[in-house]
Amino acid sequence: MSESVKFEVGGRSLDLPVMKGTLGPDVVDIRKLYGETDVFTYDPSFTSTASCESKITFIDGDNGVLLHRGYPIEQLAENSSFLEVCYLLLNGELPNAAEFSGFENTITRHTMLHDQFDRFFNGFRRDAHPMAIMTGAVGALSAFYHDSTNVEDPEQRMISSHRLIAKMPTIAARAFKYSQGQPFVHPRNDLSYAENFLRMCFAVPAEDYKPNPVLAKAMDKIFILHADHEQNASTSTVRMVGSSGANPFACIAAGIASLWGPKHGGANEEALNMLKAIGTVDNVPDFVQGVKDRRHMLMGFGHRVYKNYDPRAKIMQQTCHEVLAEMGHGDDPLLKVAMELEKIALNEDFFVERKLYPNVDFYSGITLRALGFPPEMFTVLFALARTVGWISQWQEMIQDPAQKIGRPRQLYTGAVKRDYTAIDGR
Ligand code: CMC
What we know:
- With 426 residues, this protein is mainly α.
- Helices cover 50% and strands 6% of the residues.
- It has 18 helices and 6 strands.
- Strand 5 (65-68) and strand 6 (71-72) form a beta hairpin.
- The protein binds carboxymethyl coenzyme *A.
- Carboxymethyl coenzyme *A binds next to loops.
């Protein structure tokens, strides 16, 4: 017999069905609540609300588990490649050799941008934040690729998904080059996704750029770690914007805007700035005291869902060591500050009681800095990698018969109806 929850209010009662997933908590289906009882539920930051049904990503925050289409992030980071993970997120299954080769070929051959597109970059100030450029440039894709904006057409949806995955590195690298005052570097089809991106960022016309395999592998792994994370703020933004039927490029631009905030994707930039401000290991105890006194936050710590070590943070820490060793920065003072900060914080009651652990952003800043990126680029790299998650979730949302335009309700606490008074009577 299927389970239900009895709900009683104002003398009326209703049996609310309980829905069961394959993993994770059961969900009470409250869709009929308002129609039958005239009350809404109140959950302003969705701490207890499942906004959709999804088959893409599962997180068990208490046990530090992250699965994409069922596969643990540790196995994907170790054995897979970012493009393979893209295929998995988008299509539901790992590709066979022929499917992978077809997918890789499609992505590689969509990396170029319309020639006219480059004019957008010149409109920005050189000191513009690259996330500002990304938000504008990705939104502008909808003005260039009209042939893939019909959201009702599955083929057009897939073409726009491929275009976004393919063109994000080119746009991100251009945003970087523009801030450096260097000429844009065009993509090359003989390189892997990560190699191509690093080359578009770091090659200059004056000399050849040879991709470093250790750094390219690390970049690829960082992309895998950021590929999807179920219904976080930016993904929910993409789904919400998409629920109105908006085109995919506009939806992803909205996701980028949401990601930019310091509590979300902007935390990697803030975490590195924090480590720089702390400066040396001697200053760590004072900084931790400041967190406990609520003078500042410990950026790169804490998570809405993980109440345990973020599994991505463990892999990121390992990648950080690999990149620093390869670059000869093994004794980076900021790495020492980060490790001391982590050690102290994990043993302090303030953090233990609140279940605050390092998240993916704690070590990513040091790693990306060692790869040669300035802090303003960190969130851009996150957006590049998360694009596949956003677009896969958007595809799922469009195909879900239960989804309608997103329209939350409210608890109104403003003035009750009153009459307008003319200005001389106020
Ligand atoms: N430093 C100090 N105190 C913290 C921190 C932190 N980083 N995170 C949470 N707390 C405290 C918070 O003040 C609260 O204390 P109290 O109960 O005494 O008021 C308690 O821990 C619970 O925190 P919360 O704000 O209710 O938790 P939340 O689920 O609303 O917020 C979060 C999650 C990620 C926004 C928050 O932990 C945070 O702002 N962390 C720093 C920013 C960061 O690293 N963000 C990256 C998240 S992972 C990547 C991504 O999603 O993009």
